[in-house]
Amino acid sequence: MLAERTGFIIWVSDIKAARNLEKYGSVHYISRRMQYVVMYVNADRAEETARNVRRLSYVRKIERSYRNEIKKEYSSKTPDKTQFYGV
């Protein structure tokens, strides 16, 4: 079974040093222009990992991703209009 994951957006001042974040979790994306890293870690160790990453000298700010909390089931109150167009 897959472990529950939590995402972090980490704003950094040095992109080359940001490659070292791979030892704390899986790095999903590194933006060179805006200088941030998207990283996923196990949810049960998320607070401990964030505390350790915050101590690094090249980390400016850490934001938690709220993607897991967004509702993924959509419901439509309006009727489907495709039947009127003969699709």
Automatic annotation (TrEMBL):
Top-rank taxon, per record: Bacteria
Key words of the record: Cytoplasm
Protein name: DUF2129 domain-containing protein
Lineage of producing organism: Bacteria, Bacillati, Bacillota, Bacilli, Bacillales
